[in-house]
Amino acid sequence: MIFNFTRKVYLDNNATTLISSAVTKAMNKVLKTHFGNPSSHHTLGYKAANLIAQARSIIASSIQANHKNIFFTSSASEANNQVIHSIVSDFEARQQTLKIITSPIEHMSIIATLKALEKRGVIVEYLTIDHHGHIDIEAAKQQIDAETGLVCCMLANNEIGSIQNIQALAKIAEQQGAFILSDCVQALGKIDINVNQLNIDYATFSAHKVHGPKGIGAIYVKDGAPLTRLIQGGDQESGFRAGTESVHNIVGFGQACKAIPYLLKQSSITLSLKEKLKQEVIKFNKNVTFNAEQSETLSNTLSMRIPSVDKHSLMAFLDYYDTSISSDSACCSTNHSASHVLKAIGLTDKQANETVRISLSAQTKMKDIQYLVKKLSHFFAAYNHNITLLGPNSIDYNFLNDDNNYILDIRGKYERLLMKSIPNSHEHHFLNYQEVVNTLNKEANLILICTSGMKSMLFAYQLSHSGFQNIKVLTGGLMAWKKAHAKLYHDLAGTNVIKIDE
């Protein structure tokens, strides 16, 4: 495979961050020497329990909370679920109808949970937001009433970076006797968080957004706010979450939170790098627009829309040069519908498909931004010079039976087990690049297919670099084609398939 990378640039920090060396060191020590079960009544168990207590205090201190109000979970998604279901249980016990009001740009762990609860009779309403992604506080005063049990609103959005006036929203909720949950995952380490000043009842957090490990989250629960078990089976976490604690992950979370003062200090530097990136991009493409940037946003987050440019094409081009960005939330990356956040701020499906997210961290350097700008300038100068994007509707029965089309399915073995290939395609694994090049005619009319369209775009740029002239990519991949041609997939998928790599 031909890769000519000169610099690795990671700019998808809102999806996850690189774990810090201090966190890795602390976790390794726990794994090697503090392996006791925190619930066991012996020295090893007591030491493990003490490490959890220390981490709890550190995390509490980072948000100005009491350690008794912090409870560990496996993730912020679990934490959001536990809070919402706790409110539901509380209202069900009192045989009261529950109304939950939320913003339309929440994380899917909240949006999807609320949609499921609507089937159980929970009333769900959505707050009004402007085209910058900010809650209309005046409208919220009219909407949040005495019938409201819970208000859900994230402190900072993960896709466009908009920061909400949670303090004002919490005051409205308190006046109406409603609880308020704020997903603070993206805000932690980027803006100062004081749960007492915000006056929120619940806040949720995740370690892997602040250079900590994946698989560990936390809930802040204000005194008097209801909390019920989501997982049964043990008395861990003061009886609110069963299951042996993941001591090394909890210690890693605590160690990561020790660096929050440093991360907050670095936010001004991160902001200057983001502003530099915006200025440079506008120089060579004046049509670029930036979502939510006209108001208060996170210093590290840039949502950028480039008219007439397919986001998958740009992401694959940059990935070819070892530069990682994203289009929307990683939790929604397998869903090929337009981002609910971008739709909520008024973008059309087409505009959402032209939008990418660039998210920096305290570790991002000026050289990273300069490298990205250089690659972006190359992309704009030669966009789609010999790569054509095919919509899933265009690959119909006639297209499949056209002998001039060479359909190349580059999915891996296990992907093929999950979904059958398009009929008349040639299966060859994505990673066996040189073998593919050796078997293909450079004049052939190539149609590249993968599961989602992303690998196909990356592969297309490699082939273009090797001199292939007629390259087409199925946008949305097999998932989109199967949806567009359900009957064709049912009747013919997997037939007349040539397995080149076996």
Automatic annotation (TrEMBL):
GO terms for molecular function: transaminase activity. The keyword Mitochondrion does not apply. Pfam families: Aminotran_5, Rhodanese. Keywords: Aminotransferase, Iron, Iron-sulfur, Metal-binding, Pyridoxal phosphate, Transferase. Its cofactor is pyridoxal 5'-phosphate. Residues 401-490 form the Rhodanese domain. SUPFAM superfamilies: PLP-dependent transferases, Rhodanese/Cell cycle control phosphatase. The keyword Transferase applies. It catalyses: (sulfur carrier)-H + L-cysteine = (sulfur carrier)-SH + L-alanine. Its EC number is 2.8.1.7. InterPro entries: Aminotrans_V_dom, Aminotrans_V_PyrdxlP_BS, PyrdxlP-dep_Trfase, PyrdxlP-dep_Trfase_major, PyrdxlP-dep_Trfase_small, Rhodanese-like_dom, Rhodanese-like_dom_sf. Belongs to the class-V pyridoxal-phosphate-dependent aminotransferase family. NifS/IscS subfamily. This is cysteine desulfurase.
